[in-house]
Amino acid sequence: MARGRLRIHLGAAPGVGKTYAMLQEGRRLCEQGADVVIGLVEPHGRRLTAALAEGLETIPRHTLVHRGTAFTELDLDAVLARHPQVALVDELAHTNVPGSRNAKRWQDVEELLDAGIDVVTTLNIQHLESLNDVVRQITGVVQHETLPDEVARRADEIELVDLLPETLRRRLVHGDVYPPDRVEGALTHYSRLGNLTALRELALLWLADRVEEGLQRYRAEHGITAPWETRERIMVGLTGGPEGETLIRRAARITARTPGSELLALHVVPGDGLTLPAPGALAGQRALVESLGGSYHQTTGEDIPEALLRFAEAENVTQIVLGASRRGRFSLLLRAGVGRRTIHGSGPIDVHIVTHEQAAGAASPRLPRPPRGTGPARLWSATAGAAVLLPLLTLVLTAVRDRVGLPGALMSYLLAVVVAALVGGTYPALATAVAAGLLADFYFTAPLHSLKVTRPVDIVALAVFLTAGWLVGAAAGAAARRTRQALRATSEARALSRLAVAIARGQDLPALLEQVRENFALTSLSLLQREPGHTAEPRWYVVASTGERPPERPYEGDLEAPIDDDLTLAARGHGLGGDDQRILAACAAQIGIAHTQGRLTRHAAETDTLAAAEHTRASLLLTASHDLRAPLRAAEEALVRLRPTSDGETRGIATARSAVRRATQLLTDLDDLSRLHAGALDLYLRPVDLDEALTAALDDLGTGGHTLVLRLPEQPPYVLADAVLLTRVLTALAADALRHSPPGAPPTLTAEARPGHLTIRITDGTDPDTESDGSRVDARADSLPLRLSRDLGEAMGGTLDHTTTGGAFSVTFTLPTAAHRIAPSPAGQ
Fold first, then answer.
1. Phi, psi of 365 (to 5 degrees)
2. Each residue of 535-569: pLDDT tens digit?
3. Residue 726 in contact with residue 688, Cβ under 8 Å?
4. Which of 94, 316, 335, 706 has the fewest beta carbons under 10 Å from its own?
């Protein structure tokens, strides 16, 4: 079955009309003959939206009960069973109620798409995971419901539902978005004009990037390499030299003259693919580029012009800015400079050559630098150079044969061997030495023009020459290998340190992945995480990605660097050698650390927010409890002064006094709970006799015909507890059991001594054979007396759990026993 198509109506803020646009699309498709149903629509009390939904078939919602409250969610099974052509599902980033099949609504939508059902949905820009921190900085609001960017990027169509911020604020004022009691708060906080403008810009930029991705994908699929000037992209090539700042500022001026253009800076790492020849200079130039609104990139390549043009074609660059060559005229005669070769292969891309103070002219010709290593290119270059140099040198030496003789010829040939060794290493030097020895024997030893050697001194001279040539070649090759290893180690350390610095600076995962991708010249890179609970057939989702067509599964990439069992790095691109794969694995480990740090940071931010909210709630409760004590005290005193005239009034006054006392006790419990959580409740742990604590608890229950069945051992052990708090806990648990026990069925308190602890179980008098009311049990388990008792018990080192047997509710309170039965003194010392 073909996968369904996903269409997203994207908005910058609530109220721009996403749901309305989704319903309009559903009506349009329905009029064209498509089978359209409403899976879930949230009109949020907006009359026009609700009216537009009328007439479309609606799948009834699924009801779930969570913590005693009923919620409605998308009935996924019903929609799958109905199997329409198109399903309208609102709020893609919504978090489902616990107990649903999937944790997120976008996972429900994935199942609909897998079943071949087209889905039209809505999404606000602030719910995208990559923009979550940006939205928090703009609005000051933490969005707890987020959507992985990859889910939105996989959509077949994304339509922006746009509205001017001023128009949206007018809709708020007219009550078209929120109820009247929420309008003022929205206008002065989240929906301020500046906030809405910034969110709108975020939505436009994010959608523009998706359009750009689609364009690049189309060009790649159709093999289009020529740049399309949909917008100007100016790229400046950086070498790390002192002319870099001049080139960057020149390119920035070109960019500023063209509205909508983009500035890119590229440094091509030669040879080993990771070496940074001037890290300090490059760091400063990178900072300059980013301060001017551009982006910095790195790539690798043996041939710099080819690497520049390859990157320019991949990024659809329209203009390239390069510096004039610093090489002298003599060097340029031997080989064309980077600028000339780039112009030769640029095609429709404009190339600007910018002069600077370090350009050629003042510099004198100099010898080429020693090579950093050998390879096939240098091997063939040395061989070709020797094939040209030896005949020319022989031609010159034969002309002055009578003056130089064999020693002079061998010294001249030794120079050629040294040059071959410097360029190509051991084997080209040895081959050059053998060829030079044969030429010297043929042209400079008697008999001439023969390989036969008659004089012993000539034999010794040729042998010494060959030995010297071999030693020079071996030394040069070993030096080249050591130099290459040293540069490799240095470049690896620099690459890892750059990544570590980027992580320390808090760069996001896409930027870190882009840095790794550019270092290794990969096409695309993805950080993939396994979804929990799918061990037989793992399901992966993209945490972050960069490049063209990033892999969405580990097996879709050409390379993989596992981080742990649930996290891996997958890449598309050319194969890497063993050393590069080792460094990629190290980079993957650092990316994994950055991902973990980001998760911990977000969790810490959420925890801080929840802690602040909890602190505010506790402060309000404490203030309210203090304010309510005086009215309750006055009410109780007024009830005491009343003189009843009948039995009915007597019972009524007694009931009212009991209710007032219970309300006072609840305020005391709230106060104690707040003090306990704030660490302000003093504890004095000492051996306590259970009999004395129970006697005090029964006294606190007061008169009124309370019946409590006690089942205690003959000599219960002393428990290690705070006597006052233990009495509070026993009183609260007993009162709760009495309150929920039916008439004539008293609760039971059973104490049982076990090694190291004492277990106290209080069971209400409800018949165990009756059917249990789940919502009532949950409400009772979350009640204030039970929560306070649990927290006080844990503060004293004990535990408190609840169980149900049919309709009977039991609370088990466990405390550690004291090592010795030591009776406390009357003064409590």
1. -60, 140
2. 556 678 788 888 877 888 887 788 888 888 788 88
3. yes
4. 335
Q: Which helix (H) or strand (E) holds 757?
A: strand 757-763
Tokens 């500023």 identify what position? Answer: 256
Phi, psi of 371 (to 5 degrees): -70, 150
- Quote the CA–CA distance of 686 and 708 in Å, as a whole number: 27
Count other C-beta atoms under 10 Å from residue 463's C-beta.
Answer: 11
Please tell me the distance from the alpha carbon of residue 122 to that of residue 14, in angstroms, as a whole number. Answer: 11
The number of CA neighbours under 13 Å toward the Cβ of 640 is 8
Of 813, 696, 698, 688, nearest in space to 761 by CA: 813
Given a contact cutoff of 8 angstroms between Cβ atoms, the answer to whether 98 and 69 are in contact is no
Whether 140 and 107 have beta carbons less than 8 Å apart is answered as: no
Torsion of CA 193, 194, 198, 203, to 10 degrees: -10
Strand bridging mode 86-89 / 36-40: parallel
Structure token digits, residue 107? 């996972």
Is the pLDDT reported for residue 13 higher than 60? yes
| Per-residue pLDDT tens over the stretch 500-519 | 777 777 777 888 888 788 77
Q: What is the spatial distance between Cα 37 and Cα 334, in angstroms, rounded to a whole number?
A: 73
Is residue 379 within 8 Å of residue 428, measured between CB atoms? Answer: yes
> Would you say 483 and 372 are in contact if contact means Cβ atoms under 8 Å apart?
yes
Nearest to 464 by CA among 410, 537, 423: 410
Sole residue written with tokens 């219960």 = 716
Indicate the residue type of 70.
A
Q: Flag whether pLDDT at 250 surpasses 80.
A: yes
For residue 691, what are the CA distances in angstroms to 32, 54, 824?
A: 81, 69, 13
In sequence order, what are the residues at sequence separation of 6 or more whose Cβ sits closer than 8 angstroms to the Cβ of residue 488? Answer: 272, 274, 579
Lookup: tokens for 452: 């036969």
How large is the angle between the packed helices 132-139 and 193-221, nearest 10 degrees? 160
Nearest partner of 711 among 744, 751, 738, judged by Cα: 751
CA–CA separation, 585 and 575 (whole Å)? 14
pLDDT of residue 732: 85
Lowest mean pLDDT among 220-234, 468-482, 574-588: 220-234
Q: At what angle do helices 401-424 and 456-504 cross, to 10 degrees?
A: 30
Q: Look at residues 783, 803, 717, 713 and name the one whose alpha carbon lies nearest to residue 750.
A: 713
Question: DSSP readout, 389-433?
Answer: HHHHHHHHHHHTHHHHHHHHHHHHHHHHHHHHHHHH-HHHHHHHH
Average pLDDT estimate for 225-238: 74
Contact 552, 561 (CB under 8 A): no
In angstroms, the CA 16 to CA 162 distance is 7
What values do phi and psi take at 157, rounded to 5? -140, 140
Contact criterion met (CB below 8 Å) for 408 and 444: no
Structure tokens that stand for 615 in this block: 């602190």
Average pLDDT of the segment spanning 276-301? 77
Please give the full DSSP string across 709-767, using - where no structure is assigned: EEE--SSPPPEEE-HHHHHHHHHHHHHHHHHHSPTT---EEEEEEETTEEEEEEE-S--
Helices 165-173 and 193-221: crossing angle, nearest 10°? Answer: 130
Q: How far is CA 630 from the centre of its chain?
A: 52
Contact (CB, 8 A) for 346 and 309: yes
Which residue in this structure is represented by tokens 């609001």? 141
CB-based contacts of 477, cutoff 8 Å, min separation 6 = 374, 421, 425, 426, 427, 429
Q: Is 126 helix (H, G, I), strand (E, B) or coil?
A: helix
Helices (H), 222-303: 244-256, 279-291
pTM: 0.38
Q: How far is Cα 525 from Cα 232, in angstroms, rounded to an integer?
A: 26
The residue that leads in pLDDT, 704 or 771, is: 771
